[in-house]
């Protein structure tokens, strides 16, 4: 059973960081770029090497991934399935604004994301299916090219979901999982009976 190493890098601060931006394509701030840069530099200094960089196509991930792939002379792939959760009518709104207008719905969504979702937004199970489909594609691509270690530049929701699965916690715990801006989270990916399995590991 082949164990693949995934290092998941969350994008840094963006121009709309104070909102639920979901699929909105906002840019990194200078601070956001530096957050990612300093995290990556720590791993490069520790002689960590990747075989490939795979990124969400949204520019808060893509722009940094393109620059880093060029710098490290690594292959770069984009995967639209690993975009952030889509927040529907809440896209671009701050949680404060949502709380003022729909306090009960927001509280329910934070507490029971499996049962409540943003108006006209993605259900958690839809988001999970999409992300898993994306990582199935990534697993196949890594196998085909004999890549063992990938840097995945993605979003908070994706990292929280995979961490929740890796810890085998119920999906309603999703929003309590860690996913800081510009930080890296290390997971193993294996496949057993055509099912993907994630587990946490120390980032090396």
UniProtKB/TrEMBL annotation:
One of its GO terms (cellular component) is cytoplasm. Pfam families: His_Phos_1. Signal peptide: none annotated. InterPro entries: His_Pase_superF_clade-1 (IPR013078), His_PPase_superfam (IPR029033), PGM_Phosphatase (IPR050275). CDD domains: HP_PGM_like. Gene3D superfamilies: Phosphoglycerate mutase-like. Transmembrane segments: none annotated. The active site is at 11 (tele-phosphohistidine intermediate), 84 (proton donor/acceptor). Substrate binds at residue 60. One of its GO terms (molecular function) is phosphatase activity. This is Fructose 2,6-bisphosphatase.
């Amino acid at each position: 059973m082949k164990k693949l190493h995934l290092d998941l890098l969350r994008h840094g601060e963006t121009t709309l960081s104070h909102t639920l931006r979901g699929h909105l394509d906002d840019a990194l701030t200078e601070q956001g770029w530096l957050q990612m840069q300093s995290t990556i530099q720590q791993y490069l200094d520790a002689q960590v090497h990747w075989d490939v960089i795979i990124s969400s196509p949204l520019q808060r991930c893509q722009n940094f991934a393109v620059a880093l792939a060029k710098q490290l002379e690594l292959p770069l792939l984009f995967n639209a399935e690993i975009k952030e959760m889509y927040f529907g009518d809440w896209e671009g709104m701050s949680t404060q604004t949502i709380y003022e207008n729909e306090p009960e719905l927001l509280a329910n969504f934070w507490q029971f994301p499996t049962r409540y979702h943003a108006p006209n937004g993605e259900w958690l199970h839809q988001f999970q299916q999409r992300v898993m489909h994306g990582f199935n594609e990534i697993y196949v691509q890594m196998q085909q090219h004999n890549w063992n270690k990938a840097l995945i530049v993605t979003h908070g929701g994706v990292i929280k979901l995979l961490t929740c699965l890796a810890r085998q916690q119920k999906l309603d715990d999703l929003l309590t999982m860690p996913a800081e801006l510009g930080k890296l989270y290390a997971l193993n990916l294996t496949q057993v009976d055509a099912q993907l399995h994630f587990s946490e590991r120390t980032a090396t």
